[in-house]
Each structure stands twice: as structure tokens, then as C-alpha cells.
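Task card 7
Instruction: Convert sequence to C-alpha cells.
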Amino acid sequence: MNAERHPLLRHLRPALPPPPWPRQRPQVSFIVCTRDRLAVLEACIDSIRAACRAHPAYTAELVVVDNGSRDGTASYLSATAASSDIALTAISEPRPGLAAARNAGLARARGRVLVFVDDDCRLDPHYLADLERHYASGEKWLIRGGRVETGDALDLPFTIKRCDKRERLTPAVHPGGFVLGCNMTMHRAVAARIGPFDERFGAGGALRSAEDTDYLVRAMLAGMAVEYVPDMTIFHHHGRRDRMAIDRLHRDYHFGNGALLLKHFRRAPWLLRHFYWAARAARAEAGAR
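Output:
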């Protein structure tokens, strides 16, 4: 994806000078977006570097998008990039919102396969080997997501996916959470065809959530597959340990999903059925309290 070709991506400025790495295209780009979460970001980056060391034949780079942090993240990234055993590029994205940060990462990433990982996630050491095996099939036109486990036993089992079989999204299945944005991969040609994330959606955006679900629906409308695989595992350290935190997240999800329906229902009328039942379940849950 070329930052000069799409008007949403022309504003990019690197936070650091380009690293002194060979400029040949890596096999994979890990894209991590962050804001004021330095402690979890350090653990995330350490896990990515460890996975890359465990499977060095699959060349990788790491693109970290700092979305306005004020907690020392920029200094940490500068020091880490200087000593990293994999190519690390830091980008400063001043416009708030996860979707804007994801777009900044998309524009800078050079890998053939793009991997979106949230900053509060840690990769299984075998992640790259699993990723290479799945993409070795040669099938290009799909979005593929992997397993998401709870990273801390004290966190509530939310924003995880533990299905043990490979499956593909169909209109009969609600798209929300089928592939989680914290562990979402695609060939760069897929991102180029679908285009940037809709910056109205997602955490920090006007619509608060669902930038990943919107991307899945757009992929389906473009005739692409959306696939979940039971490996390519990450561990999500989301830190939500009480019902109040989950309720806040639920409200954001309902808000974003409602906007998603309004955006797509003419071209994807099958969404109406899913959001009808989701709304009924939400009302029933609220009435039970």
C-alpha cells in the first residue's frame, strides 16, 4: 500500500529515522498500535522478537504506531529500535483513534503478510511457524485470524476465541468477533484492495468500536474469504477483572455494531438478522440486572 496514493495516508511522518536494515521486502510485518501502555507494550514487543528468533527463516519487521503517548513510549521505542535484532520502525500518529493508527501502520509496513497485534497481547513462540504454514498454501484473497487466549488467569474470559477447528465466515454467522482485530492477518494485496480502515470506527473514534468487524464485512462484500484457524495463538492481557469494565466494553461494541449495520445493511442485508438478535439479548441482559 503506497502512502502517496491514498489521501488518508499522506500525512505520515516517521517518529524515528529509517533503520539501517536491508530494504528487501520482509515476509511479514507485525503492526502494533499503542497509546500510554508502555508496560504491556514492552512485553508485546519482547514476545514478537522471541517468536522471530524461534523461526528466523521467515523474515519479519515490526512497525509500532505511537498514537499520542505521554508515558515514555517514544524514548523506549528509540532505544529498542537501535538495539533490536529485527527491523523496528516507530511511527508517530497524532490523530486519535485505533483505526487511524492502523492506517499509519498499513502505509509504512513492507511485508508480504501483514499481522495486526494489539499492544496488550503476547505471541506464542510458534506463531511465525504457524503463520508461514498457513500462507504457504498460496491462497491470497482472504483475511485470516488465529486463536486468542486469556493471558492472565485474573482477567475475565472476554475478547478471546478458543474454537478448536478451522472455519470460515458465512452470512449465517455474526461477523463480530469471528476474527479478532488483536490477531488479524492478511496478504498486503488484500489490504490494498479493501483500502484503509474506516476511521470513524474503533477505540478512540466517533463510533467507539468495530473497525475490525467493518474490515471483515468489507472483505466479504469484495468476494474475499474470512478464515479462523485454531493455532497462530496469542495471549490477551486485557486487564478487565470486574463486570463494570466488561459492561463498558459491551456498550462500546453495541454502539459500533449499530453503526456498522447502518453503513452496510443495503449491501449486506444479512446483518439485520444478527443485530436484531444481538439487540434482543442486550435488552434481556439489561432487564435481568
